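Ribosomal-protein-alanine N-acetyltransferase, pasting as requested.
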Amino acid sequence: MLKKFNLFHSILGKFFKNRPYDARTVEISKQEYFIRAIVLDDIKDLLSIEREVYAGELPWTKTAFLMELQAAEPHLYLLIQKDEQTIGFVGCRIFGKDAHITNVAVLTQYQGNGIGSFLIREVQEFARVNDCQTISLEVRISNKNAQRVYRKLGFVSNTIKPAYYSENKEDALEMMLHLKEE
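Structure tokens follow.
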């Protein structure tokens, strides 16, 4: 299976190229933030955010981030900073006509300010540029706050994936956003 997956990665990498992301300052809820593409040196900050957001758990390891950032297929991994401190990030990769959000996290003290929504809208733009028809993600069944944010952004529930999260066997709700043609 892994050999087929790696072959798929190498084939796609010949047809698609990641477009560079233009780092910039943005205003969200009357506050200024800096957003840019994630680089390998940022992984330590991402792991720290995961520990805080997921109560000490690490849904993604250093190795998982390394593999994603170096993947051949189109992907987008962004972080957002306030006063040079990384406070959140989002990641997605494209498979066919779907942009799959692999992870999104914002430090607890910054949640509720529109940062997560902003990051997801950046993924939406990336998906449109790459001619995607959908954006998909999984969210813990227990994470009602995240589900509410995703629904506000237009995501709808799709299926339940039993025992999706390996550390506690919690189910995941798959959600999908169908992109409108413009």
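Note for the archive: Residues 1-17 have pLDDT under 50 and may be disordered.
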